[in-house]
Amino acid sequence: MNNNIYIKKINTTSTDLTKDINRALRDFNHNTDMSYVLLHITKTSTFSYTDEELKDISERFVNTLASTGIHFFAGSLTPHTVIEYKETVKLSIGSIMEQVIDTLFFTRDIINEVGYFDVRYTDNCAFGDYAVRAGKTALYPEISDNKLPWLFDIAGVEKHRNTPVFDRQSSGWYQYKYKNFPQNLSMDTVTNLKPSLKKLV
């Protein structure tokens, strides 16, 4: 078992979502010397992972990071496509529109580079905003501001297909920041995504 992973369950409401995520990330960043953090948001899920499942998922994220160079993952994704890396890792690629996010994986490097979540967001806009900001670093695939943000997950761990609810004020902040509501944005093609994925490995 990898002892370098901080695992935290968060039981939160939508209004406290980003505040509670940020609190857990700060606790990880300031009070541990571990390299990775996995957060499980139990309130958004119709089930809860066991501690053993979370340990297994977190180690799979670390292995996927080593193969892909991606430092931020969100799940469980309903994938639009699955990409295979080095015949050992399958990467699910999805968006913020199709699923309720209940697991988040970060490296210490990306937290130090990108920072914490924008507390104005109380729904999946928070994860889309973080992905866009992460894409401006060398730790995450670049994402165009005028496209729906891609999210990445481990293929094969999907347990549910819940539909997210978008808060009007949260979507309004996203529109203010990126000049469009996320519901109106289209996804980029995987063909256009692949070159920025290749830059990371």
Structural commentary:
With 201 residues, the chain is an alpha+beta fold. It has one domain (5-198). It is 35% helix and 19% strand. The protein has helices spanning 17-31, 51-68, 108-114, 125-134, 168-178, 190-198; strands at residues 5-10, 36-41, 72-75, 81-85, 89-95, 103-107, 150-154. It has a 4-stranded mixed beta sheet, with helices on both faces. Strands 4-5-7 form a 3-stranded antiparallel beta sheet. It is globular, with a radius of gyration of 15 Å. The protein starts with a strand and ends with a helix. 40% of the residues are buried. The model has no long low-confidence stretch (mean pLDDT 88).
Q: Any key phrases for this structure?
A:
201 residues, alpha+beta, 35% helix, globular, single chain, three-stranded antiparallel β-sheet
Strand content: 15-25%
Q: Major beta sheet, specifics?
A: 4 strands, mixed
* Strand order of the biggest β-sheet: 1-2-6-3
Q: Helix and strand succession?
A: EHEHEEEEHHEHH
Q: For the terminal residues, how far apart are their CA atoms?
A: 25 Å
Shape: globular
Range of helix content: 25-40%
* Number of continuous helical runs: 6
Low-confidence parts: none
Mean pLDDT: 88
Counting helices, strands and paired strands, the structural category is alpha+beta
Backbone CA Rg: 15 Å
What is the domain total for the residues?
1
